Amino acid sequence: MKNRFLLVLLSFACLGHAQTQYYVDNVGGNDSYTGTSENNAFRSLKHINAQTFTPGDTILFKRGGNWTGTLKPKGNGKAGNPIVISAYGAGQLPIIDAQGKSGENNAMSASIMLYNQEYWEIRNLEVQNFEKGNPARPTQKAGILILGKDAGTLKGFKFENLKISNVNGSLKTRTNGGLFFNIIADSIPENRIPTNFDGIYVNNCYFLNVDRGGFINQSFWRTRDMDSKFGELCKDGRVNNWFPSYNIIIENSKFENIGGNGLVTRVAKAPLVQNNLFVKCSSKTTGNASYPYNCDDALWQYNEACYTVYNEGDIDASGFDSDYLCKNTIIQYNYSHHNDWGGLLVCSWGKVVNAFNDGTIIRNNIFQDEKHHMIRFSGNITNTEISKNLFVTDAEIDDVMMWYKHWGDVWPDKTVLKDNIFYNEGTSNFLKLGETSNNTFTGNILYGSEFIDFNAFESVRDKKDLKSKIKEIKKVGKRRNFSTSEAEHVIQIMWPDIK
User: Fold this and answer.
1) According to the UniProt entry, where is the signal peptide (predicted)?
2) What is the CATH number of domain 258-499?
3) Distance of CA 85 to the CA centre of its chain
């Protein structure tokens, strides 16, 4: 499964021959220079923004430098020969910070912005966008904004070794964040062209102190229901215009102290999210560490989510989530622990006429020492499978293990819980079933304290071996250095045969 998008990654690796290297130095540079060597570097973002770059060009910022404003270069790369933005020299990553200001004709404040462009690679920078003064109505902002409008398919975006930090802003909007892909459309329907992205690759990036989301994307082309196809009428009478983005890969990255959701993919076909670490997400407002929304065939694997924060009055604060308008989501081989409001949410809002969430599979994950509950099933979700997971509880869980609830006056239907292991040292209550229907419970094993409300479990085959594995897993969860995901490590402890 890890090689699912190997061909896409190989296409990014083939960079071709660089046409021109441009250097930017905020201290020793001068905009009257040629910019083509370290000793003749340009100085300002404004001068770079005036240039039009071509395939193979490279724009290099001097390490240790600091630029205020928006980097908005022109031009397009091409397949195998993108335009590259990176760093040169020794020292700290170069910093670009818009400080909450919006340039002329910009849709929002962003430190780096691309509009209807494609084949760009950005790496080895620190991007900030901090609006000083703690304003009551902060500017809508992003660290990096990739904007598309009536352009068809925009291809080839790669982000590596970036630090995206200190992006403050409103917690009331889900479009304020670190790395934001946004597709909008003309106000006149006749001028609109279905638009999407093909090829978004994020690797080894660090998102720190970002409001409201770390990685986020959204699209105007998002309307659908469970059964209609593009151009057909949905249940609510609107036309299906769902035009998803493809080949989204987000891996090996860290999301820490994010004001709301750490990572959300929207309107996407088969996004892959793997080997990421989420620490202390939703630190300021309700949110889950990561999830797909309005996606088909999303795959989440080998991610670790921990210490998601529950703020008073929040409705979400879990490690993972399969959200509504999704089909066939797979969440596997992940490690969720010490989250304030459960390890997993599977949901769909029943009062939205078009809403659904069908075919979610949750398998071979480890959920350890979550607070309040383990899994919440909410609303009109159907055909959900929870299989071969390990659930480890301590005294922090003070409600139930499995919580079924109505959302929008609709209850979950057709949920299967099979072949899971429950290691219980916490709650005495297992289930809030409500009026959910057509549930299957089979082959599940309980070790530890029995539940007073449910006893349909099989016996543990090897208690000593299981207890030893859980001890090792707990040790990983208590480590002090949370730098990378340890999901693969703990999965190998529990299930050595999984590769």
Assistant:
1) 1-18
2) 2.160.20
3) 23
